[in-house]
Design a protein that fits this description.
20 helices, single chain, 11 strands, disordered N terminus
Length: 465
């Protein structure tokens, strides 16, 4: 089942195409024209490379995004601080497209092209590359540099007791609330320790109107992590699998969570119905900023969207609340922290691994700090400067005090997924398909869970053969 075996048959055919494409889009020379010496030879007095090394890496973001993040400026500064190391960067895809990046990176690896750093966008991609020996464990390099990666970064996901990637960014989750609607309903800002039942009551009170003029109290996307919201505070790590890699659909939070969403939409009628969401292709940003919904549960990337008033015209202030806890036994402000698997690794075939590690750690610390345009996983990042970069010069649309209280709460519990089970992506697809049928009234909750477990068991059995 290993991806590398499948790709080797196409490697020779792909080599010329990829080399030509990358040379055109990024000005990158073929590997044979770059200084590609291994960095085992170093100066005994300075520890610097004995001769010039050229590192190559390709981004899943386009050139405009890379410029916005000030990565070219960072690379120039890095090269000044590290004489003897040159860095060549270019987009691997025309637009921001993680799937296309992965396909092209796989072809480059199979074809033997130089690519010193690799980026993954999901944990299962990272573990697949680790299992296939594509990416290098970072622990030894960190030890040689006297760095404790767990002390330096949030969101790290050790795999088989080794660290293979450093997050490019992390995503805390929270609830975005239209403050004008909250005030009009006479509701206070939700307390840090509120529950999903409290959320349900807020959604009811924030819902008003009928038909085309109806304003819903709540909006949840069609992603699987919104089907059973209680798992974020009730099940630490991967909710779909137990610690010993068995399916976890018998956990009561799956049943109760599905019922919770169904009731919001079909009993309370306080959340945008799933059938409308999918049939009309409703988008959470548009629904929130146009004033069609009062609350949206979403990742922190949406914070930046608030300032984009040309794209999302609105005048109301957004306030923020913690992700609710499922029961009063759960710790307040517990939610997933995305980032595991969304980061940078060293290609195990790189001839410049020590230099690559030096650049990798710089890129994921000062490299993100310079632009202040992402949610850096680096623990030493300047929080105030990061907020300024994310919200822009006009803070009038933000309740920044509430935002800081949620995201920088010292007691916040980050639920980080560090495990990936066999056949996970297919299992999530099956769960999504069955849950959708339940949400639109096509089948019962019992049938939904039964079908999900049967199909997931078959996928796991096939994946583990």
């Amino acid at each position: 089942m290993k991806r590398m075996a499948k790709l080797l048959s196409t490697a020779l055919a792909a080599t010329f195409l990829i080399s030509a494409t990358l040379t055109g889009c990024g000005g990158t020379k073929p590997a044979s024209e770059s200084s590609n010496a291994g960095d085992s030879s170093t100066s005994a007095s300075t520890g610097a490379p004995a001769k010039e090394i050229t590192l190559k890496f390709y981004t899943a973001t386009d050139e405009a995004t890379n410029n916005q993040r000030k990565w070219p400026e960072f690379i120039t500064e890095f090269e000044k601080k590290n004489p003897g190391i040159k860095v060549e960067m270019a987009p691997l895809v025309a637009n921001v497209n993680n799937d296309e990046y992965k396909k092209k990176a796989d072809l480059m690896i199979a074809a033997g092209e130089q690519i010193d750093l690799l980026r993954t966008s999901a944990l299962y991609e990272l573990t697949e590359w680790a299992d296939n020996g594509v990416v290098e464990p970072l622990d030894e390099y960190a030890g040689n540099a006297g760095v404790n990666l767990l002390d330096e970064y949030k969101g790290l996901a050790p795999y088989n007791d080794k660290i293979y990637a450093i997050p490019e960014e992390i995503t805390p989750w929270l609830v975005f609330i239209n403050k004008d609607m909250l005030d009009a309903a006479g509701l206070p800002l939700p307390p840090k320790d509120w529950t999903w039942e409290d959320y349900r009551e807020y959604a009811k009170k924030l819902t008003k109107g009928e038909g085309a003029n109806k304003i819903y109290g709540s909006f949840m996307n069609e992603w699987s992590n919104f089907f059973t919201v209680g798992t974020q505070s009730e099940i630490m790590d991967n909710p779909f699998f137990t610690a010993d890699n068995k399916l976890n659909f018998d956990h009561p939070t799956f049943r109760d969570g599905l019922q919770f969403r169904y009731d919001l939409e079909n009993v309370d009628k306080s959340q945008v119905p799933y059938v409308d969401l999918t049939s009309q292709k409703l988008k959470y940003r548009t629904m929130f900023f146009s004033g069609k919904v009062a609350m949206v549960c979403m990742g922190s990337w949406m914070v930046t969207d608030i300032q984009l008033t040309d794209k999302y015209p609105h005048t109301f202030k957004t306030t923020f609340a913690t992700y609710p806890r499922w029961t009063t036994n759960s710790k307040p402000n517990t939610s997933q922290l995305d980032g595991a698997g969304i980061g940078w690794s060293i290609n195990s075939k790189s001839a410049n691994k020590q230099a690559a590690f030096k650049f990798l750690t710089a890129l994921t610390s000062e490299g993100l700090e310079i632009g202040h345009k992402t949610w850096s996983a680096w623990k030493k990042t300047n929080a105030d400067e990061m907020i300024k970069g994310l919200v822009g010069p006009d803070e009038s649309l933000y309740d920044l005090e509430a935002f800081k209280n949620v995201v920088f709460d010292p007691e916040r519990v980050d639920n980080i997924v560090t495990r990936s089970g066999p056949g996970e992506s297919e299992i999530i697809d099956v769960f999504t398909e069955e849950a959708e049928k339940y949400f639109v009234g096509g089948q019962s909750l019992d049938t939904t869970l039964k079908n999900t477990k049967n199909k997931a068991n078959a996928i796991m059995e096939k994946a583990t053969k």
